[in-house]
Design a protein that fits this description.
Blueprint (H helix, E strand, L loop, with lengths): L18 H10 L4 H21 L5 E4 L2 E2 L4 E2 L1 E7 L2 E8 L7 H4 L5 H8 L11 H12 L5 H29 L4 H21 L8 E2 L2 E2 L7 H24 L2 H7 L7 H6 L5 H4 L7 H4 L22 H25 L18 E9 L2 E9 L7 E5 L1 H7 L1 H5 L4 H11 L3 H5 L1
Antiparallel strand pairs: 1-4, 2-3, 4-5, 6-7, 8-9, 9-10
Helix pairs in contact: 4-5, 6-7, 6-13, 6-16, 7-8, 8-13, 13-16
Amino acid sequence: MTAPDTTAGPEGSSGVDNTAASDTTAGLAEPSDAEKLRYISQQAADARVNVEIETEGMTLNIGPQHPATHGTLRIIAKLDGEQVVAAEPVMGYMHRGYEKLAEVRTYPQVTTLVNRIDWVGSFANETPFILAAEKLMEVEAPLRAQYIRTVLHELSRIANVMLGIGDMGVQVGAVTPIFFAFRDREYVLNQIEAVTGGRFHPNFDRIGGLKDDLPAGWIQNTKNAMSKVRDFCDQIEELMYGNEIFQARTRGIGIIPKDIGLAYGVSGVNIRGSGVDWDVRRDGLPNGLVYDQVDWKVWTHPDGDSYSRMWVRLQEVREGTKIIDQLLDNIPSGPIMAKVPRIIKVPAGEAYVETENPLGVMGYYVISKGDLNPFRVKIRSASFNNVSITPWLLKGVYVPDIITILGSLYFILGDIDR
């Protein structure tokens, strides 16, 4: 008897293996609810793992020793990749307490201190304090002294801003502009030294006038120096401002809208670079400087970016040379010192005077109680307000842009920390 075929199916089908065909059909079929739930569970588990291993953004310290910070300033930048999500300036590393030191100095001694606030601002640091003291004493310097003060104030501006322009080239990788600036700034510093005896800290201003009159030949030598400065402006405009790399790094970068800049108290070139037509030399109260005696222009730029701020600086250097030439052509004769007591004792009262300094508006609020030294001195430095906008300004930019933005704001740490 023949044994029955055990490979046959229950319906008497042949013994062919249909497993592979069944698997293929099952693979093409829609997954069951159980399989869908299994897939969702796996994806949820993967997501939990990703969250657990996700790291926070990087924190980048720029400074406190960094060439772009012009002193000991620290910028704490929190990054998401290459983009800044938050930035915080840490100031105070160079705080020297000038406001308190002024309270234990006589009025003539204070100029020795304030010279060192904006250490490249030279004579311009002295001017607003002396004018505030003169306001309290109701003393007015002779007209010739006012002319010389204004000339020295503009020479300080030119020397300061020339250095800032050249330094901006370094921030974008070009060393030649700073060498040009060092070379041609010497002509300006030579003239400051020739009349005051000091290149950076002249200590030349006095309550009621000036320490000395101009030396012989100084006027013509200063005019020659202004011609050299105008040549520098032409060279640097072609070398740096016309460079496509410089423009790519500065145009459309670090834009300060007018309302934001004014809200932060930004002043000087940094606010005029946002299209705000305001300059204390023209629009402020009369303060003993003779800008109203010359024909000059306030330069502005509507874009508000890093390029516009640097462009306005270049135009202001040119304009400064024209102001100086006009002042020297019309400088009157006469004394350089009003009659004041040998021992200065300022009457009781308070006064605030601000001037348009190289870095922006600088003001001194002086309170006197009738003593030989001020009772209180409050200094409104331009750089402190100008750098205060950096948390807003740096948010959303990329790391390389931090350097160019800081360079375009152009601040001095002595001016921030006082």
